[in-house]
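so im writing up the methods section and need the DeoR family transcriptional regulator record in one place, dumping it here so i stop losing it
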Amino acid sequence: MTELLDLIREGRAWSIEDLAAHFHTTPDDIRRQMEFLEHTGCIRRVTGCGHNCQGCASHCSAGINPDGFPAFWEILEH
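--- predicted struct ---
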């Protein structure tokens, strides 16, 4: 999970599918890891890219969530 947190810390938007491919695992496995990290207060899911764009490829390479916005996670510093 350390490598997953390092990728999140970079600030790039990742889709679940992209993360699964990057780590050579399944989307379900990534979802479980992300849910665990959210539940423990390590990360928070954020919707919208924060760049005021409309899904641009340069900033918003994540998949689109059901609300139509790119989704990404941020590290919650304790």
